[in-house]
Amino acid sequence: MVRAADRAERPARASVWLDDRTRARRGGQPSGLDRERITAAAVRLLDADGPAKFSMRRLAAELSVTAMSVYWYVETKDDLLELALDSVFGEIRRPGAEDLQAGEATDSATDWQADLRTLAAEYRAVLVRHPWASSLAGEFLNIGPNSMAFSHAVQQVMRRTGLPLAAQAGAIAAVFQFVYGFGTNEGHFIERCAAAGVSQDEYFSRSMAAVTREPQVSEVVEVSKTLMEARGGDTVAEMFERDFTMALDVVITGIETTVARLV
After folding, report:
1. Domains of the chain in sequence order
2. Tally of CB atoms within 10 A around 262
């Protein structure tokens, strides 16, 4: 176990996954704790309060242990945040993962579009369920086992599109940077509504009513109304769903068009 003073003096490391000391089993650990339990508690606290209020002391209180007990398993707060981030990546359902676990071969002829939509929807859902994950994903290397399994699944699907190898990384970026941005905005909107103590529909209605009264933006508001009426959707949730589906269709169509042009 590293002393608190030593932790404070040590420079930040690149990743918890790159330090063999964090993987080694140590003797004399406090009973009743393990890294999985600690990580699960961290995810619960991050979901409830966000990273700004997260601390090792609050985590220890959640586990009914001392903060020093937690440090037997993780050396720094950043290590634990990185573990929590990779943990939620483990929630992503990967097409064909069940077959791989059973030792069965996957069907390479499976519709790549359906699998890509599944991965995109699963990634979006994680970002919405855990709004804190998007900011942490930008801070850490995302090389934990669950993150790497997700990346591998994405690459496998992209190989089946027919895109030349040189174009596949760009196509992955087009799909999943879009999903990252969409899921981040959606998750933060839901979080904002919860903090305000109102439903998403009520928050949206109040916001639209407020900006409609502003003469400086009246023209923009009128155009936006036309777009929203054409899109349809009676609730904010339906609007999000329609927008996501259409945007993803546009990106996938772009991949098909690029394949036809390059191959």
Report:
1. 10-89 (1.10.10.60), 97-197+232-262 (1.10.357.10)
2. 11
